[in-house]
Amino acid sequence: MAMKGGGAKKSSQSMQKEIMLELGGGMSCYGQIVNLTQDNALIGTNAFSMTGRRPPSVGTTGIMSMTVSTHGKQEALKISCRVAYVNSGQIGLNILASGLTNYQQELLRQVTEGGSN
C-alpha cells in the first residue's frame, strides 16, 4: 500500500471486524479487517481463492462497508476506497477520504483509535 510519509503519526487498529467490499464491475466479497488506519485498510478474504473468481485489479475503486457501535447504537459506515494491492488472501486498500462526509470521517477516526467495536 502507498503510505504517506512525514506528518503526524496516524492511529492504526488491528482487528477482526467483518466487512463487505463492493468494487467496480459488480465484484463483491466479504472479509475481515486485519489492519485499519484513516488512510489504508488491509482486508483478509478467501473469496478470490475459489476457482473462476478473479481478484480485483489494482486501481479498482469501491465501497468498504462495516457496522460500528457509537453512542450505544449500531451504525453502517461506508468508506470509499481504491485497491492498492492484491496478495494471496489479502487486499490492500487506500481510503479515499475526499469521498467521506465529516460524520463518516469521525466514525472512521473512532474505529481506528479503538473507540468503536
Structural notes for this entry:
With 117 residues, the chain is mainly beta. The protein has one helix at 102-112, and strands spanning 12-14, 18-23, 27-37, 40-44, 61-70, 73-87, 90-95. It has a six-stranded antiparallel β-barrel with strand order 2-3-4-7-6-5. It is globular and about 45 Å long.
Largest sheet: 6 strands, antiparallel, barrel
What is the string of helix and strand elements? Answer: EEEEEEEH
**Strand fraction:** over 45%
Write down the overall geometry: globular
Tally of discrete structural domains: 1
List the helices and strands and how they pair.
Blueprint: E1 12-14, E2 18-23, E3 27-37, E4 40-44, E5 61-70, E6 73-87, E7 90-95, H1 102-112
Antiparallel strand pairs: 1-3, 2-3, 2-5, 3-4, 4-7, 5-6, 6-7
Descriptive labels:
Thrombin, subunit H, single chain, disordered N terminus, 1 helix, six-stranded antiparallel β-barrel, mainly beta, 7 strands, 117 residues
Brief synopsis:
This protein has 117 residues and is mostly beta strands. 9% of the residues lie in helices and 48% in strands. It has a 6-stranded antiparallel β-barrel with strand order 2-3-4-7-6-5.
